[in-house]
């Protein structure tokens, strides 16, 4: 029993978990469960694939947790502007590849304007669509939160890179992996039937791994620095 207690205490210290964190996130999970339960009661629909109900909240909660525990390093304005520019470009790519943003400059979006809200399973929805001749936005809650959290973590890691450590570089390289989480759902089912069937399983796994690598890239970069042999000069 003491061994289990010591192990739990080690985990608590390792991740900086306080009693208030347990209460706070317990309340969050409780509210999310109530919202999902209420949705299925009101709509009188049944759950055929429970994991697809859970996955959106993995994205939302993990992304929110990582953001709340990440503080970008203080740097001069020029460095922050450069990091923000790179992050903005990457976020634009994420939103575009993820289907959340389309510009009329690159394709025809039709005539007129449209605004609608689709009430679907919480986490996946409500899906908010706005379209005119110039831009189309499709807001899927969990994807938007997930992409914003990745962008925020990347921004923080790019600022770390200015310290001369490998942390920021490692974070940037690891973030390339999250592109896979965007591309997998877009693969043609006829060509990649097995992968397409597991698309959101793989996407969620890669998202979790990417957030983890970005969040701990400072520590991982420091370890890589110790492993890399020092130059003769």
TrEMBL record:
**Signal peptide interval:** none
> What residue ranges are annotated as transmembrane?
22-40, 52-68, 89-109, 129-154, 166-189, 195-216
Q: Which InterPro entries match?
A: DUF7546 (IPR055968)
Question: What keywords were assigned to this record?
Answer: Membrane, Transmembrane, Transmembrane helix
| Superkingdom, taxonomy of origin | Archaea
What is the protein's name according to its record? ABC transporter permease
């Amino acid at each position: 029993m003491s061994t289990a207690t010591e192990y739990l205490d080690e985990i608590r210290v390792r991740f900086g978990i306080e009693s208030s964190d347990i209460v706070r996130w317990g309340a969050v999970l409780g509210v999310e469960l109530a919202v999902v339960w209420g949705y299925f009661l009101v709509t009188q629909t049944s759950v055929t694939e429970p994991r697809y109900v859970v996955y959106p909240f993995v994205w939302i909660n993990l992304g929110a947790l990582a953001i709340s525990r990440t503080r970008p390093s203080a740097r001069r304005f020029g460095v922050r502007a450069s990091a923000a520019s790179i992050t903005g470009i990457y976020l634009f790519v994420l939103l575009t590849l993820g289907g959340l943003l389309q510009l009329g400059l690159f394709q025809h979006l039709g005539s007129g304007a449209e605004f609608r809200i689709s009430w679907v399973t919480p986490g996946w929805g409500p899906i908010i669509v706005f379209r005119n001749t110039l831009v189309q936005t499709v807001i899927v809650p969990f994807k938007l939160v997930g992409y914003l959290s990745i962008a925020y973590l990347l921004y923080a890691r790019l600022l770390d890179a200015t310290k001369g450590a490998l942390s920021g570089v490692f974070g940037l390289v690891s973030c390339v992996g999250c592109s896979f989480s965007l591309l997998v759902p877009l693969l043609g089912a006829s060509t990649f039937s097995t992968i397409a069937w597991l698309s959101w399983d793989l996407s969620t796994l890669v998202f979790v791994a990417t957030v983890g690598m970005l969040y701990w890239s400072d520590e991982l970069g420091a370890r890589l620095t110790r492993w890399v042999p020092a130059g003769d000069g």
